[in-house]
Amino acid sequence: MTPNDLNSHPLTVLSIVVPCFNEDAVLKETYSRLSSLREHLVREGKIAHGSEIVFVDDGSCDRTWELIDGWVRGGAPVVGVKLSRNCGHQNALLAGLTSANGDAVITIDADLQDDESAIERMVDAFHQGNEVVYGVRAKRASDTWFKRTTARTFYRLMAALGVRTVFDHADYRLLSRRAIQYLCQFNEVNLFLRGVVPLLGLRSAVVHYDRRPRFAGESKYPLAKMVEFALNGITSFSVTPLRAITLLGFAISLACLALAIWVIFVKLTFPNAVPGWASTILPIYFLGGVQLFCAGVLGEYVGKIYTEIKRRPRFLIEKVAERSRSISVGRPQGHRFHRPVRGKVQRTRAAHGENAT
Hints:
By secondary structure, this protein is of the alpha/beta class. The protein has 2 domains: 3-218 and 313-356, Spore Coat Polysaccharide Biosynthesis Protein SpsA, Chain A, CATH 3.90.550; 240-310. 45% of the residues lie in helices and 17% in strands. The protein has a 10-stranded mixed beta sheet with strand order 7-5-6-4-1-2-3-8-9-10, sandwiched between helices. Strand 2, helix 3 and strand 3 form a beta-alpha-beta unit. Helix 10 (240-269) packs antiparallel against helix 11 (277-310). The radius of gyration is 26 Å and the shape is elongated.
């Protein structure tokens, strides 16, 4: 970016959203790396001085919020958003996106497995006119064979089911302000951002990076949560399993017809055959298993309908800790920071040391 560009265009205000759930073991290192990167981008003239790091505490029960609040009170360029309970990773991301004030907002996990140096290339891609920039894993050598295989199988399965996703992309991405406004129009409770973001239809780019081992702490996505996440993604974006049930029922009907023909053939050609066992036992066990499987698939979709029609809020913000703000130099005069929240929220402003509701 040349000096002429800096004079003719207002600097981009960047927000980096970091969802946190019991991350006190790694959070200090995360803050250190992201704040150093922010300062580097400010010095390079790629982002405005008013850029921020938004930590979203997703109902942690360790010292996560204490650390975040301490940085805010110390005058760091940090915003803390504390959710009232553990709402899940996807909802924590959405809470951070809707709470951030940046012209561009980047989401990254706190475990430092996603290379934060790719943020600079994401910002460059944003300056080139891309409103969505996906961070895609070029190498996954740090993952176990099981993790790597199941993840890639999931992406291939989603593609086979007709769901548009970006292969080997998780939730490391940049969104423009307009992209976030579009995203907020998707009101489903069963949120699957990896499927929703490609539906925005805005100009996009891809930035590749190498996935690293977790810096510290334990993974917050055990096998049970991974399976739940995969099922949520499939049932939220594809009706193919329901259509597969129809095809399965048709195939079973053909199989039962073939079995009936076989039983008649045996009866006519082998008079000494034991009567009744094949035509009774096999269909009972076979059809019983198929019925249970189909009932399970139908139940998964009915459960999704049940949670959607209740329209419960996806997250509730308990408190927001932030510095006092001023309009950044070079920004349009009509711009004002706006942080949408629901209900009565406690705000802590570091510059005045006061709490306001």
